[in-house]
Amino acid sequence: MRLWKDWVEAQPQVVPMLVESIKKQRLAHAYLFEGQAGSGTMDLAMLLAKRFLCENSQGEDPCLRCVDCTRIDTGNHPDLHRIFPDGQSIKREQIDYLQKEFSYRGMESRKKVYIVFDADKMTSTAANTLLKFLEEPQGETLAMLITEQASNVLPTIRSRSQHLRFQPPLKEEIIHQLVEHGIEQKHSHFLAELTENKEMAIRLIEDDWSFQARSVVLQLMYELYTRPDQATITLAEKWLPLMKERIHQEMGLEMMILWLRDLLYIKVEKQGELVYSDFYERYKELSLSTSQRLISLSLTKVMEAKSQLSANVAIQLVMERLLFTIQEG
Ligand SMILES: [Zn+2]
User: Fold this and answer.
1) Contact 23, 60 (CB under 8 A)
2) Residue 136 C-alpha to ligand 1 middle, in angstroms?
3) How many Å lie between the centroid of ligand 1 and the Cα of residue 256?
4) How many beta carbons lie within 10 A of that of residue 109, not counting itself?
């Protein structure tokens, strides 16, 4: 489990603030964590829950060994409640159940935590029930509400919780999460550039599309600079058949931009990690035979192609024109 120090870089405002409150024993009764998927809202809520319930902790981190810590890991700690949407929404009965659980256990000395995931999905009756609960915290209670869009949470709930805004996930953070998910480093880097979060990247991997697209883009771009006639064939036979949907076409163009950016980095000897690092030798070779002017022009043209696509120009036409202008240089 990643501890507070491991999250500072990704969340440089939220983490020091929470750590300070833990150390001073001044945690709020209720927090509203707002941040997009992959930003760490869920992980940090779990970390805070663990630290709050751990009886053995020293400093800001939980001990990770005690009964409380291990029960949280196995998902059966009696004083930690997690609420997820039941279908499309979080319903009033779910909040009622939570309330009942809390009063039933009734042992005033025990600490209790509840985490509401997708808090914006509460129905208005659920939200109003929760509101009463927030207003009358029993004993030592810690509530954490998690959302991607705080403006969709009832204003009265927002005003009764401490609102923490998480930064969007860093590229490095997405890469780290993908590698943890068992994805090779070189693919992780590429996927992190193309997508906004881990979930989207994983979806791409699962249908295998991204790997095929990656190799087709590498082939197309290399041919475009070395054997232009062949590039036209690769476009028709491989690129276009693979990029059927609009989202794929946009990503296909984005992949070309990343490829050109890599080539430009090599050409101007700029230090930086390559997106297609396995292509390094070929970039080297190409950078000797290609002018910086042509690479920059190509970049501009691919970006123009992206806007043509948004203006609903047919993809085949967009791509044929694009290849033609780059070949003409
Ligand atoms: Zn512990």
Assistant:
1) yes
2) 28
3) 49
4) 6
- Of 96, 98, 152, nearest in space to 121 by CA: 152
Question: Is there a single domain that holds both residue 139 and residue 267?
Answer: no
Contacts of 306 (CB under 8 A, 6+ apart): 250, 253, 254
- 89: in domain: yes
**Looking at 180-184, 251-255, 324-328, which range is the least confident one?**
180-184
In this predicted model, what pLDDT tens digit does every residue of 109-121 receive, in sequence order?
Answer: 578 999 999 999 9
CB atoms within 10 A of CB 64: 15
**Taking all residues of the chain, what is their mean pLDDT, rounded to a whole number?**
90
Three-state DSSP class for residue 113: strand
Q: Which long-range contacts does 225-228 make (Cβ < 8 Å, 24+ apart)?
A: 225/286, 225/289, 225/290, 226/286, 228/323, 228/327
Q: Separation of 181 CA from ligand 1 center, angstroms? A: 26
Expressed in angstroms and rounded, the spacing between residue 4 Cα and the centre of ligand 1 is 15
Q: Do 223 and 117 belong to one domain?
A: no
CA of 68 to the centre of ligand 1 (A): 6
If you measure from the C-alpha of residue 80 to the centroid of ligand 1, how many angstroms do you get, rounded to a whole number?
14
CA distance 126 to 120: 11
Residue 52 belongs to some domain of the structure: yes
Sheet bearing 30-34, strands edge to edge: 80-83, 112-116, 141-147, 30-34, 162-165
Instruction: Tell me how far the alpha carbon of residue 69 lies from the centroid of ligand 1, in angstroms.
Output: 4
Query: Ligand 1 mean position to 48 CA, how many Å?
Result: 12
Q: How far apart are CA 149 and CA 322, in angstroms?
A: 39
Q: 0.85 exceeded by the pTM?
A: no
Specify whether 8 is located in the same domain as 129. yes
For residue 63, report the distance from its CA to the centre of ligand 1, in Å. Answer: 4
Q: Print the domain residue range for 320.
A: 208-328
Q: How far is the CA of 221 from the centre of ligand 1 (A)?
A: 54
47 Cα to the center of ligand 1, angstroms = 11
Position 104 scores a pLDDT of 67
Task: Name the percent of the chain in helix, strand, coil, to the closest 5.
Answer: 60, 10, 30
